[in-house]
């Protein structure tokens, strides 16, 4: 069992890292504003499964891929940038009431891809394991426990972003407001893509 002191440190690391603004949280808030919590659940669950899968991948040592082949990180970064621009295009397209009503919520695989193409997540998980794995304890037990805690924290923190987006934007239903939301969310995604590309 991992020591309680380590759990405290892990939570002190994970909560602010997961709760802080970034590409993933911006997307979750925008989707919450567009589709509400219920409509965002499939995307959110795919997002959290991505968190769990990548926690296992890094925890069991496959992070060596990025050390051995730095170009793999560059491919991930540019793939993420293109995916966020694709999301931006979707928001820009949905600036009219008719287009918004025709737009289906994003699904489970969209959430998984969005998380998987987010360089911030990969860096966060890599740093987390470099700080909190104890060589004297069984690796499988530690990786599993840390991954489950990380996902549990993610569920709570990401819900806050989704619900916040819903509360902020769901009451604004005029055609003008919907156009402004589409443009604002689209511009947010463009800024996220620029941040990802330049980081």
Characterization of this structure:
The chain has helices at 4-19, 23-59, 64-68, 70-93, 97-102, 108-116, 119-132, 139-169, 175-198. The protein has 199 residues and is an all-alpha fold. It has one domain (4-15, 23-29, 38-198). The chain is globular. The chain starts with a helix and ends with a helix. The mean pLDDT is 80.
List keywords for this structure.
single chain; 199 residues; mainly alpha; globular
The profile of the biggest β sheet is: none
Q: Write the H/E string, N to C.
A: HHHHHHHHH
Given as residue ranges, the uncertain stretches (5+ residues, pLDDT < 50) are none
Radius of gyration: 18 Å
The span between the termini is 37 Å
What is the percent of helical residues? over 70%
The averaged pLDDT comes out at 80
* SSE class: mainly alpha
Number of domains: 1
State the shape.
globular
Oligomerization state: single chain
Count of individual beta strands: 0
How much of the sequence lies in strands comes to under 5%
Total helix count?
9
Membrane topology: Multi-pass membrane protein
Pfam family, one: LysE
Transmembrane segments: 6-31, 43-63, 75-92, 139-161, 182-198
Subcellular location: Cell membrane
